[in-house]
């Protein structure tokens, strides 16, 4: 434990308590502490380092830009970096998928992207209420926090969180038809709810416990939103940028959300960056009606363009399916051996231990073995596995073998 941190950093610090090392360097799937100890990173900056720590191609683009005296701060002025990013996003990601979104720049974090999405939806519809799902995590600023469902995070607000309502997720109750439930709420003038401006969804709830929402549910939600004139927002902040096997996580459902938010791995190597992608008919905010000094972080744009090029010009995309299949095989093997549930898709998985204390114990034991894993789900009862998408197969196997051993210890089997 680092004494300076313990003494002077606020009590609100969090991750440094879980992994009591002073990290100094990182490369690909590994982090290294000041003593040179190596850790396999199955946390991945909560989904920020999909292309691996210090990805050389992305880093080189950033270094070249820095050394060329490129614009480092420019609000939303027109810069070469901004034009190049938007062109690449449009031509290499959006147009090939038939997506006609305008690109809006919020501040450089995920919660900023969701705040902007809320403003678009509320202004375009003239309605206030926004629905989110039970189990949702959408950020920590007040608008987004009102959508986030966990009570610990919500209590931190210190004032009422308004303008939102939480609907059941498809897995909330066995046999529940969550779409039919929402339909019933919309139809009932005694439901105590108003027609929402938007419904926001993570196609796989990450902090909620790696709950992969069924494709039929996503298709049904798209249909419900279209029929009722409700804006469908997909929060792809954690599970976008190839995490589930495709650039956007909703591609498996063949749907087009009205608004999509991206951040985390969008910035390539951990460079803070976010976008809110908005359908042209919802692009209703006036110039400067949403603003911010760090909208469109220039280095983020450079890194984001380089990340898209890296993904599409190397074997990164072709190897995603194979890596996802290996992760599934390994995690499901561990789950079967230890009699626990595995949930996941692509390269984001959870092992449900059903008890936060067991997960905490497992995280500490894994850290001692040089593997960094996080908790997720209700009561932090699941072990979250989120390796970088460039993790070599032997490293994936090594990390999973440690998890297998540790589960044997904590479950006493
Ligand atoms: C799905 C989702 N939305 C929004 C956020 C908030 O992003 P940020 O922490 O960058 O504000 C997160 C962060 O974990 C997230 O997982």
What are the main properties of this structure?
single chain; alpha/beta; binds pyridoxal-5'-phosphate; 413 residues; seven-stranded mixed β-sheet
Verbal overview:
This protein has 413 residues and is of the alpha/beta class. The chain has two domains: 3-55 and 318-411, Aspartate Aminotransferase, domain 1 (Alpha-Beta Complex); 70-313, 3-Layer(aba) Sandwich (Aspartate Aminotransferase, domain 2). Helix content is 38%, strand content 15%. It contains 14 helices and 17 strands. It has helices spanning 3-8, 15-18, 44-47, 56-67, 80-94, 110-125, 142-145, 151-155, 178-187, 215-228, 298-313, 320-338, 356-368, 393-411; strands spanning 23-27, 30-33, 38-41, 102-104, 130-133, 164-167, 198-201, 204-205, 211-212, 231-235, 259-262, 275-278, 341-345, 348-352, 371-372, 374-376, 382-385. Strand 1 (23-27) and strand 2 form a beta hairpin. The longest helix is centred in the last third of the chain and has 19 residues, at 320-338. Bound molecules: pyridoxal-5'-phosphate. Residues 46, 109-111, 114, 137-139, 202, 206-207, 235, 237-238, 263 line the site of pyridoxal-5'-phosphate.
